[in-house]
Design a protein that fits this description.
Length: 218
């Protein structure tokens, strides 16, 4: 994919390095001259400009990008970049960083955001996930589709132990997408047996999250 990242601070550069390792094309757009450091991410294309300027995005050929990531430390900037990318250039996927959790409600499809990533909320969710066995933990929200990535770790006394995946009657608008077991990543098939300690990752709407919890307790 061709990916544009607005903001070349520590977060933007880290994202760029990960994407480059996965063989994607990356362009970093940075307004502050002090943050322009091509030697830190040599394989990326660097653009010294303001990503909130329409002309900048036109010159950078944002329209050809598969994904735009608004990764600055300013929520206002991230919203403007997201809106321009989606409405003016019809970028298929727009991901935005949320710095202040109080602003999360703004990061939706009205501002062109497909996926909003709140670092404080994600860190809190990961802490919960590490200690919460049997509880449903929301890890990520996909704003455009109003769906969430949620995780449940099966407890030692789970009634599902030894039962096949197909025996779990999940509600409509939900799907089990992966099972994490030890160091393994398992794409679930109907005949796969569940085990205590399995981490189950679901994509589901908010409305059916409690129904998922109930289905796993039967």
């Amino acid at each position: 994919m061709r990916v544009a990242i607005a903001g070349a601070g520590a977060v933007g550069r880290s994202i760029a390095l990960e994407l480059l390792d996965n063989r994607h094309q990356v362009m970093l757009i940075e307004r502050e001259l002090a943050n322009i450091a091509p030697e830190t991410v040599e394989a990326a294309e660097w653009v010294h400009a303001d990503a909130c300027e329409l002309s900048t995005l036109e010159d950078a050929d944002i329209e050809s990008c598969d994904v735009v990531i608004a990764a600055t430390g300013d929520d206002k900037v991230n919203l403007v970049v997201s809106l321009l990318a989606k409405t003016e250039f019809a970028v298929r996927r727009v991901v935005a960083r949320v710095n202040d959790p109080r602003n999360e409600w703004l990061f939706g499809d009205n501002w062109g955001v497909d996926v909003a990533v709140s670092t404080p909320r994600l860190l809190a969710a990961l802490v919960e996930e590490a200690v919460a066995v049997g509880d449903l933990v929301r890890l990520l929200t996909f704003r455009q589709g109003q769906a969430n990535l949620v995780e449940v770790t099966l407890p030692e006394d789970t009634p599902l132990a030894g039962r096949p995946v197909r025996s779990v009657k999940l509600p409509t608008d939900s799907a089990l997408v992966v099972i994490l077991r030890g160091g393994r990543v398992i794409v679930p098939q109907g005949d796969d047996a569940l085990e205590p300690g399995d981490e189950l990752l679901f994509v589901a709407t908010t409305a059916v999250e409690e129904d998922i919890r109930a289905a796993l307790e039967r």
